[in-house]
Amino acid sequence: MIFTQLNSDKGLAELNTFLEEHSYIEGYEPTQADVSVFKELASKEAERLKAERLEAYRKKKESKPKVIAKSMVCLDVKPWEDTTNLVEMEKLVRGITLDGLVWGASKLIPIGYGIKKLQISCVVEDDKVGIDDLEEQITGFEDHVQSVDVVSFNKL
User: pLDDT tens digits, residue range 29-48?
Assistant: First the structure.
């Protein structure tokens, strides 16, 4: 007897019904027919197992949270002159609010001749905040800010 549809439930049910009454596919001892049916069953099971594992891997990979690329940036904000109100300049800079921008520590660093610069750090989400755009917004405070320089840029 030849079993051809071993990859379907109907074919497997026919084989199972046949083997309930017979010990072997042909005759009273194992033959090449038994070997071929066994190999076909084994390959169907291997494919099913492989498909299950691939599906489980896809689900696991999809369930992982996406990593958000962040950078820590340190900026030097330079005033026009020594009479520029640096406290007000810092308030203006910290007043910039963008989605993905978090301001950090700041300090005033002497440059020379009584002039100080504001050094301020921030953490930005790379996909949401561009450093060039941030620099443009800071230099937009023309009465207070002469220039902005990036001191350090570190990926987190």
Answer: 888 888 888 877 777 777 77
- CB-CB contact of 103 with 94 (8 Å): yes
CA distances from 1 to 57, 106, 156 (A): 39, 85, 67
Q: Give the whole-angstrom CA distance, residue 91 versus residue 86.
A: 9
* pTM of structure: 0.59
Three-class secondary structure of residue 110 per DSSP: strand
* Gyration radius of the chain's alpha carbons: 36
Residue in 76, 80, 77, 75 with CA at minimum distance from that of residue 144: 80
Burial class (CB in 10 A: 0-12, 13-18, 19+), 70: middle
pLDDT classification of 1: cutoffs 50, 70, 90: low
